[in-house]
Write a structure and sequence with these properties.
This protein is α/β, with parallel strands linked by helices. Strands 1, 2, 3, 4, 5, 6, 7, 8 and 9 form a 9-stranded parallel β-sheet that branches. Strand 5, helix 6 and strand 6 form a beta-alpha-beta unit. Helix 8 packs parallel to helix 9 and helix 9 runs parallel beside helix 13. It starts with a strand and ends with a helix.
């Protein structure tokens, strides 16, 4: 499993810096956050740094009216559902998108896909229409990746999830770009059924021979590695670590107005405001919140050099890069040579996080809505179900996934 960078507002410098440091890496471009000229110039810069690119067409809501999204030529300025799907509208969209993917130098072609309030016959028909039209493009020389973008309610529906997995077996695509809305706007999801269904989708798609990129992730989705996801994608602000579909409309309030700085404690799978690190220092627990050498990053070293954390000038820039560097290391560490070893590694990660959080909580140190303590049970339950339902097949096929 790899970590891809989910591009969001204000991420150009972060992406370039990390790609340069890593020597490689894949960025999923966001037309919603880049104007047409920026998209071209940024793509060229990333390629020159040794990075790779994918383009998220962000056609989730055809009536979306976000100014930057609407500024791209491929995005329909007028959309009438019947005429678009039964006429030339879909083919024109795919042709424009393919041309843009080619101009940007994208490795694969992520196809447009609608946000599904429910997985019903109409949505499946449109998914098939997109795939069939894409297959008919003689110009296309790229691997096709189908978008599966689901509402929280659809993701929670076990019957719909099973129907989707069966339907997708017949899709003639190389991969799936899976995006699942979090229930109730939660950052860390506490619903075990939601988590279980996400990883069941990943396992089902992978066992059918498709690559799976899980988009708009935070560290809770490290569990995706247990289902052999190809990659998870994450970014800086919370709206690229979860999927709020309303962000593609003009009235959406940008998250950049929130100025709190958070430190990601990889060992505890949690984020903490810097003031709570001051408390941890006073309680003699600060060093336990530092990441290990193999899973940490140099961006947060300044917090653990003996000075009160809130006085050392640790800001958003370091916090975001520390998060992504730490998550990349965790992603690489999780995947093992067998299904059993990967499960053991992740379960050990949960135990370590739980033990540390219990210590921190007893000292009054909590991460509010970014505290993984509330999500541990959901992930543990989902993992147990995965072992029961998909374990035998994953165990047998792990070496080829």
């Amino acid at each position: 499993m790899e970590l891809f960078l989910q591009f969001g507002y204000g991420m150009m410098d972060h992406c370039c810096s990390l790609i340069q440091e890593w020597g490689n890496g894949t960025i999923i471009l966001s037309p919603r956050d880049l104007k047409p000229n920026q998209l071209q110039s940024f793509a060229k810069k990333v390629l020159n740094l040794g990075g790779s690119l994918l383009l998220d067409p962000q056609f989730y809501l055809p009536y979306a009216d976000h100014e930057r999204l609407q500024s791209h030529e491929y995005f329909p300025k007028q959309y009438a559902s019947f005429e678009f799907w039964s006429g030339a509208g879909l083919r024109a969209l795919l042709m424009d998108l393919y041309t843009l993917n080619h101009q940007l130098g994208c490795d694969d072609f992520i196809l447009p896909g609608l946000y599904a309030l429910e997985i019903d016959e109409d949505w499946l028909i449109r998914q098939n229409a997109v795939i069939q039209q894409a297959l008919s493009l003689e110009e296309n020389q790229k691997d096709l990746i189908a978008i599966v973008a689901l509402s929280a309610d659809a993701t929670r529906n076990v019957d719909q999830i099973h129907e989707l997995i069966e339907a997708a077996r017949l899709w003639n695509v190389n991969g799936i770009y899976l995006i699942c809305e979090h229930p109730k706007g939660q950052y860390l999801v506490e619903d075990p059924i939601w988590v279980a269904n996400v990883i069941d989708l990943i396992a089902g798609f992978r066992l059918s021979g498709k690559r799976v990129i899980v988009g708009y992730c935070n560290h809770q989705m490290l569990i995706s590695g247990c289902a052999s996801a190809t990659a998870i994608a994450s970014g800086t602000w919370m709206n690229v670590r979860s999927f709020p579909p309303e962000k593609f409309n003009a009235q959406y309030l940008e998250e950049i107005k929130q100025k709190a700085v958070w430190y990601y404690c990889a060992k505890g799978l949690s984020e903490f405001k810097i003031s709570y690190l001051d408390i941890a220092m006073g309680q003699g627990l600060l060093n336990q919140m530092a990441s290990s050498g193999t899973l940490g990053s140099h961006y947060a070293d300044i917090l653990f050099q003996g000075t009160q954390p809130s006085t050392v000038g640790f800001g958003e820039r370091q916090a975001f890069r520390h998060y992504l560097q730490s998550l990349k290391n965790q992603v690489l560490y999780l995947r093992q040579n067998s299904f059993n070893d990967t499960i053991d590694t992740y379960e050990s990660t949960l135990v370590t996080a739980e033990e540390l959080l219990q210590q921190l909580h007893s000292a009054g140190i909590r991460g509010q809505d970014r505290d993984f303590g509330k999500a541990i049970d959901a992930n543990r339950a989902a993992l147990s179900l995965l072992k029961t339902t998909r374990g035998p097949m994953l165990r047998r096929n792990w070496s080829r996934l």
